[in-house]
Structures are given as structure tokens and as C-alpha cells.
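Why run this: before we spend reagent on co-expression, it is cheaper to look at a predicted model of the complex and decide which construct boundaries make sense. The entries below are exactly what would go into the expression plan.
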Amino acid sequence: MKVRLIAVGNRMPDWVERGVDEYRKRLPRDFALEIVEIAPGARGKNADVARAVTLEGQRMRERLRGDELTVALEVGGKAWSTERLAREADDWRHSGRDVALLVGGPDGLEPGLSAAADQRWSLSALTLPHPMVRLILAEQLYRAWTLLVGHPYHR
Ligand SMILES: C[S@@+](CC[C@H](N)C(=O)[O-])C[C@H]1O[C@@H](n2cnc3c(N)ncnc32)[C@H](O)[C@@H]1O
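The model came back. C-alpha cells follow.
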């Protein structure tokens, strides 16, 4: 299984890149995490926010592969414990499909993508900045994998 984190935003601070890479390199090939960055829509003084969100949605759709299971990351999604995430990840693996985790931009995920997603997952009731979302996702995927294989890290 491949997990692709398709996230609006680029130019992450170095500490985020290093943190995400640390967990990515710990994950085995059958749980590989790939990061796909989506350029944010322009937000200037007279910016049309709805247009920027629509553009981000289009750019994300262009990167989606038709057969992937999609998971929208949203504050209002379902809260999963790490144990629940491990069960979900095990189901993803057994479905034989790759997975796309969708992270929106400053104004959230394009509503059509959220509505069409197979699952909606909330990391917390707090609104997190997108660099933190990437880091938490990478760490939690690693933690879920360690739980599935009985590696002591997950305790
Ligand atoms: C800075 S947040 C956007 C905040 C925006 N006001 C909203 O309501 O979605 C950027 C993205 O990070 C993700 N995100 C932020 N906090 C999250 C959380 N607690 N759980 C899941 N995803 C989160 C979502 O994908 C969101 O679209």
C-alpha cells in the first residue's frame, strides 16, 4: 500500500521537512508515505477566497488517481484513536487500494472533495496549522504501523 498525503501548501519550514522525513524513512515499503504538494490559490488584497479554494480543489483532483481510497482531513471529521487508525490502516492495506490523505489550504478543503471522500478524519477538535498536520499525520501513520507489527514504539 502507498499512502499519498496530498496537501495544499509548499515551502514548509525546515523542521517540518526533517520531522516528516524522519517518520517517512522509518515506514516500510508496504506502508510508504509520499507527499504531494499543491500550490495554494492566490490570496491577495482583493482576493476571491472561494475562487482560490476552487482552484486548489481542481489542482488536487488533477493529482488524484481514480482508484485511490480518499480520506479528507477535517476538524469536523471523525476522531480516531491511534488503535482505531491502526485498524483503519489495516483495512486500507487489505482493500488492495492505495490511499490519498487530503489536507486543505488556509480556507479548508474544497467542499466537493470533502463530500466525495470515502472517509473524513479529524486529528483533534483544534484547528491545526498545516505544517503540524503533516507532521502529526506522518508520526501517527508510523505509530499505527508499529502497533500493527507489535513494535514497542507504539506504547
Ligand atoms: C490551517 S487548516 C484550515 C483551516 C480552515 N479554516 C478550515 O476550517 O479548514 C488547513 C488544513 O489542515 C487540516 N486540518 C487542520 N486542523 C485539522 C484537524 N484538527 N484535523 C484534521 N485536519 C485538520 C485540514 O485539512 C485543513 O483544511
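Strands lie at 2-8, 32-38, 69-79, 99-103, 119-122. The chain has a mean pLDDT of 96. Bring this page to Monday's planning discussion.
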